[in-house]
């Protein structure tokens, strides 16, 4: 399959699997649409593999073998593997990141449950923070503070997913809400899973989880200023569309059991248009905030580029050049913004 066909297949997979991500990805610079789709494709296919077959030792060993081949530059025939291999080698994604993603998938299949918000964030770091870190690297970001915000955005989105899918998960015997919070509301998690239903008390747990997600969205938004300007609208759009899921839940009294909260197509279009302003205006940089403890290991891993073999194809060589140009442009943009801020400070002082 040629590069264009491979890209189209990955985009089709994204459009089918996540309309929100697909809508946001349309705002990426053209050179970054294929890498973003390739990243999504591998994550989606790996998740589906675990969902369908379970995280048995054989399945997980098979996924790790596929990763080994990808990092050796010899991916299998699966289109997701081939697309992800191009991304890995063009953007030097550390192997720790997709390995942590696979670990999170195995937690799903093991039926692991979470007593506290902190333990749930550990899970979110693996299944979503990893994707945020890899996406940040594709966008040309390696500064620790900006990587932390990208990971936190991923965790925020996962908390939103959990709040949205309480009913769907319960019908499959799964529970992701912090069980300590449920007990505080007088809900016995074990009894509730036997006969799950919505109550105002459960709604308060969902509301509390969305409040935690909103705090992370706020932190993540402050990191968007660290992205190259052409990349900001796509990430801003994804942040707005996902946080709107929480607002939709609030309008139905946080009842995600009887019906699924959705963001209307019209609202998504509005958010996409609104996000275009982030090309020119972004929130203030927030360098000093300590990363969420759950994502600290991802930030450490992402700071160190993977040992990359020499590119073998024209597409890979072009990817390396794009990565370099984005990094240079990002550095120039930050220098220019810093100069403007310094000039403003001097003007105010005089």
Walk me through the structure.
- There is one protein chain.
- The protein is mainly α.
- The chain is 71% helix and 0% strand.
- It has helices at residues 3-17, 19-25, 30-53, 57-71, 79-91, 96-110, 117-138, 144-164, 166-171, 179-184, 189-194, 200-221, 232-251, 265-275, 296-303, 314-349.
- The chain has one domain (3-304, 312-349): Orthogonal Bundle (Farnesyl Diphosphate Synthase), CATH 1.10.600.10.
Number of strands: 0
**CATH fold category name:** Farnesyl Diphosphate Synthase
User: How many helical stretches?
Assistant: 16
Low-pLDDT runs of 5+ residues are: 308-317, 340-350
> Roughly how many Å apart are the termini?
63 Å
Number of domains: 1
Can you summarize the main beta sheet? none
Encode the helix/strand succession as letters: HHHHHHHHHHHHHHHH
Portion of residues in beta strands equals under 5%
Q: Average pLDDT value?
A: 86
CATH class category name: Mainly Alpha
- Provide the helix percentage: over 70%
CATH superfamily: Farnesyl Diphosphate Synthase
Rg measurement, Å: 20 Å
Compact description:
With 350 residues, the protein is mostly helical.
Furnish the topology, listing elements before pairings.
Elements: H1 3-17, H2 19-25, H3 30-53, H4 57-71, H5 79-91, H6 96-110, H7 117-138, H8 144-164, H9 166-171, H10 179-184, H11 189-194, H12 200-221, H13 232-251, H14 265-275, H15 296-303, H16 314-349
